[in-house]
Automatic annotation (TrEMBL), chain A:
UniProt keyword Transferase, yes or no: no
Function: Core subunit of the mitochondrial membrane respiratory chain NADH dehydrogenase (Complex I) which catalyzes electron transfer from NADH through the respiratory chain, using ubiquinone as an electron acceptor. Essential for the catalytic activity and assembly of complex I.
Recorded catalytic activity of this chain's protein: a ubiquinone + NADH + 5 H(+)(in) = a ubiquinol + NAD(+) + 4 H(+)(out)
Gene name, Swiss-Prot/TrEMBL: ND5
Key words of the record: Electron transport, Membrane, Mitochondrion, Mitochondrion inner membrane, NAD, Respiratory chain, Translocase, Transmembrane, Transmembrane helix, Transport, Ubiquinone
Native organism taxonomy: Eukaryota, Metazoa, Chordata, Craniata, Vertebrata
Domain of life: Eukaryota
Transmembrane segments: 6-27, 48-69, 89-110, 122-139, 145-165, 177-195, 247-267, 279-300, 307-325, 331-353, 374-393, 413-436, 463-482, 494-514, 594-611
One BP term from GO: electron transport coupled proton transport
Main location: mitochondrion
Entry protein name: NADH-ubiquinone oxidoreductase chain 5
Native organism: Gadus morhua (Atlantic cod)
GO MF annotation list: NADH dehydrogenase (ubiquinone) activity; NADH dehydrogenase activity
GO cellular component, one term: mitochondrial inner membrane
Annotated ranges, domain NADH dehydrogenase subunit 5 C-terminal: 428-609
Every NADH:quinone oxidoreductase/Mrp antiporter transmembrane domain range: 139-423
Automatic annotation (TrEMBL), chain B:
Entry superkingdom: Eukaryota
Positions of the UniProt region annotated as Disordered: 64-84
Protein name: NADH:ubiquinone oxidoreductase subunit B8
GO cellular component, one term: mitochondrion
InterPro entries: NDUFB8
Pfam families: NDUF_B8
Length: 612, 182
């Protein structure tokens, strides 16, 4: 084996070992020490991150990618499934970023979940999730990817329903599982098509063997999978509902890692999509609709976590738009930069929530830039990075995407929606900052505001460094696969900045209205539409379960018996024969004399006619 | 213990109150036979008492041959619709002990269908959502018909359209090719 490949594989193996060791220790009956979460779980992730820097530096200096296949699980005449790992540009860069973010989140969670009696179990779940995510990202065949895919789905369910005594949390966890399952149907159907037509689930083999085939069907399946996992419009309600889980869960799963799995799948399968205009257009339009719709919903939410959740959904829509532009690498860059600032936004909101004694409504926050300066600064930096402020992390990926969008031959409405959503991003970001950090406090006087704990400060600091320099570092060290368009009119070059500034100024104007008392007659309809999340949960979550459950109950208790015994069985025979019998008996009037007379007359006639 | 059950069964049968196979069924041991749709006021009162509802509130499900018997038709309201602040016996289920259960109780639990009133009426919600989606689909169709793109033109080479480089003779006057002017 080539030394580089050996380095890659051994690093990954070491990472898995380091991450699985704390989990396996908990299966023994030995009691865990008091700070197991901090000393074992967090240290394991930190060590895994440091280990992952080795393949990263090797890749950045040599540019060498590798695919390794080790243990063979199944060999049939048509299909082989092996344990194979792909160390390419995407997995080698994503793994250190995911581990860095997870390390920060776990350190934060040692503070956030400190009062929880089952904190160790919480960390176990997070570690299991991380292992599943690494399996997903490093998989070289769809079967292994599916193992990771399902793993992250199940851990998401367990973590969203962490406080399972709360009915709303259970409902949210159920929603996550059901919506992800609908997406899984797409993935499984895609896998089935590929297995039957291309006879392989191996990424390299699929790319080569599908050269001349019409890939629309499996691509639609994969897009459905991404719609479910990455909360695109249609299968999106689970993501805001997932905010029922603890904040570290929202920060890790539902912003940085799990929800990008769908986009990651499409990025991995992008060579299949390159030549299929239907799939690309579908991605573009779906992504544009998602980004605009969720940004609209985010404008009027009052729960800080819901705003950040819709922001995540909007950025996922933007990533989908990028895939629709046939720029998978830019989508990947956005995944990487987005992980930093979105996780930081969630950790800041977690810090604020705990400081205000579990208050999540932004209308009851305020003035925190004096009281929690570090958290407010990080919130501001994160929001600026999110809106694409020049030279912060988000700028390098977001601006590149908008430039690519402006200079491509693209659906005009998708372009419009994406630009509108970009300006909405600035609006709701300013709304969060204004309500949380600015103006005067609107919370109770005796709030346990405390950000002096290093377990809060250090993760935020690390993620702040990432949000500021992450984009620059990644951009400096990678090679772009597709040549970007570098010449364009100044209006297009500055379009992203212009719409963001426009949004910012609009939001500032609206924010100043909050302190002035003048009679406004708000237009209710759009406000209701936005606050009620487009009425999608209200309609879908009532209608579909009602229809299916009622039908199920009816079938189970009445319909089967009624059908077999009454409509097609004994009663049906009775209902069918009764009219026949009554018709026949009605015809028989019992007029014996008339019948005999007629009989005799016809007999005489026949005899006479035959005699002549 | 089985002997006690057997004795009870024999005693009930010998009383002669229940005829036929019904006597063997466990529900009938106490004398309560399979329930039927109530027709007179006495049966209605007995059914209301059995299901722990007031006689005024009791309303049997219509007898369409579906076999509901005398089970009451309770209002189709979900558990989420009930008062969260009231001190229920089972606070998570928002239900009191021995309360009559809706036929579709498992559909109306808090994790499933919710019938609580919405901010806007149902018809308005449907119109707005499907109108929005329809509008978006129509606009995407229009956007596909009239896409946005940067203007492109054919290339314009220098040196008289690369006349000599392309093997043209130096004596022949090259024709001028101008695709655009700067």
């Amino acid at each position: 084996m080539h030394p580089t490949t050996l380095m890659y594989t051994s690093s990954l193996l070491l990472m898995f070992a380091v991450l699985l060791y704390p989990l396996l220790v908990t299966f023994t009956s030995l009691p865990l020490n008091n700070d197991w979460a901090s000393s074992h779980a967090k240290t394991a992730v930190k060590s895994a991150f440091l280990i992952s820097l080795a393949p990263l530096s090797l890749f950045l200096s040599t540019g060498m990618e590798a695919v390794t296949s080790s243990w063979t699980w199944m060999v049939t005449t048509t299909l082989d499934i092996t344990l194979s790992f792909k160390f390419d540009h995407y997995s080698i860069i994503f793994i250190p970023i995911a581990l860095y973010v997870t390390w920060s989140i776990l350190e934060f969670a040692t503070w956030y979940m400190h009062s929880d009696p089952l904190m160790n179990r919480f960390f176990k779940y997070l570690l299991t999730f991380l292992v599943a995510m690494l399996i997903l990202v490093s998989a070289n065949n769809l079967f292994q990817l599916f193992i990771g895919w399902e793993g992250v789905g199940i851990m998401s369910f367990l973590l969203i329903g962490w406080w399972h005594g709360r009915a709303d949390a259970n409902t949210a966890a159920l929603q996550a599982v059901l919506y992800n399952r609908v997406g899984d149907i797409g993935l499984i159907l895609g896998m089935a098509w590929l297995a039957t037509n291309v006879n392989s689930w191996d990424i390299q083999q699929m790319f080569i063997l599908s050269k001349d085939l019409d890939m629309t069907l499996p691509l639609l399946g994969l897009i459905l999978a991404a719609t479910g996992k990455s909360a695109q419009f249609g299968l999106h309600p689970w993501l805001p509902a997932a905010m029922e889980g603890p904040t570290p869960v929202s920060a890790l799963l539902h912003s940085s890692t799990m929800v990008v799995a769908g986009i990651f799948l499409l990025i991995r399968m992008s060579p299949l999509m390159e030549n299929n205009q239907t799939a690309l257009t579908l991605c573009l339009c779906l992504g544009a609709l998602t980004t605009m719709f969720t940004a609209t919903c985010a404008l009027t939410q009052n729960d800080i976590k819901k705003i950040v959740a819709f922001s995540t959904s909007s950025q996922l829509g933007l990533m989908m738009v990028t895939i629709g532009l046939n720029q998978p690498q830019l989508a990947f860059l956005h995944i990487c930069t987005h992980a930093f600032f979105k996780a930081m936004l969630f950790l800041c909101s977690g810090s604020v929530i705990h400081s205000l004694n579990d208050e999540q409504d932004i209308r009851k926050m305020g003035g925190l830039h004096h009281l929690a300066p570090f958290t407010s600064s990080c919130l501001t930096v994160g929001s600026l990075a999110l809106t694409g402020t020049p030279f912060l992390a988000g700028f390098f990926s977001k601006d590149a995407i908008i430039e690519a969008l402006n200079t491509s031959h693209v659906n005009a409405w998708a372009l419009t929606l994406t630009l509108i959503a970009t300006s909405f991003t600035a609006i709701y970001s300013l709304r969060v900052i204004f309500f949380v950090t600015m103006d005067t406090p609107r919370f109770l006087p005796l709030s346990p505001i405390n950000e002096n704990n290093p377990a809060v400060i250090n993760p935020l600091k690390r993620l702040a460094w990432g949000s500021i320099f992450g984009g620059l570092l990644v951009m400096l060290n990678i090679n772009l696969f597709k040549t970007p368009v570098l010449t364009m009119p100044a209006e297009l070059k500055l379009a992203a900045l212009a719409v963001s500034i426009l949004g910012l100024l609009t939001a500032l104007e609206l924010a100043t209205l909050t302190s002035k008392q003048f009679k406004v007659t708000p237009l209710r309809t759009p406000h209701h539409f936005s606050t009620s999340l487009g009425f999608v949960p209200a309609i879908i979550h009532r209608q579909i379960p009602q229809l299916s459950l009622l039908l199920g109950q009816k079938i189970a208790s009445q319909m089967v018996d009624q059908t077999w015994l009454e409509k097609t069985g004994p009663k049906a025979i009775a209902n069918a024969t009764t009219p026949l019998a009554s018709a026949t008996s009605n015809m028989q009037q019992g007029l014996i004399k008339t019948y005999l007379t007629l009989f005799l007359m016809t007999l005489v006639l026949v005899t006479l006619i035959s005699a002549t | 213990m089985a002997g006690v059950g057997f004795q009870r069964w024999v005693r009930t049968l010998s009383k002669g109150k229940i005829s036929g196979i019904s006597g063997l069924l466990p529900a009938c041991r106490s004398g309560e036979i399979l329930t039927y749709f109530p027709i007179n006021i006495g049966e209605i009162a007995a059914a209301a008492k059995k299901y722990n509802i007031r006689v005024e509130d009791y309303k049997p499900i219509a007898d369409n041959g579906e076999g509901y018997g005398d089970y009451p038709q309770l209002p189709d309201r979900s558990q989420q619709d009930r008062d969260p602040a009231y001190q229920w016996d089972h606070p998570d289920l928002r239900r009191n002990w021995n309360e009559p259960m809706h036929w579709d109780f498992d559909m109306f639990i808090r994790n499933r269908v919710d019938t609580s009133p919405t901010v806007v009426p149902w018809s308005t919600m449907c119109k707005q959502l499907f109108g929005f989606v329809g509008f978006m689909l129509f606009m995407f169709y229009l956007g596909d018909k009239f896409p946005a793109y940067q203007p492109v033109g054919p290339k314009q080479f220098p040196y008289n359209n690369l006349h000599l480089e392309r093997g043209g003779s130096p004596d022949v006057e090259p024709e001028e090719v101008k695709n655009y002017e700067i």
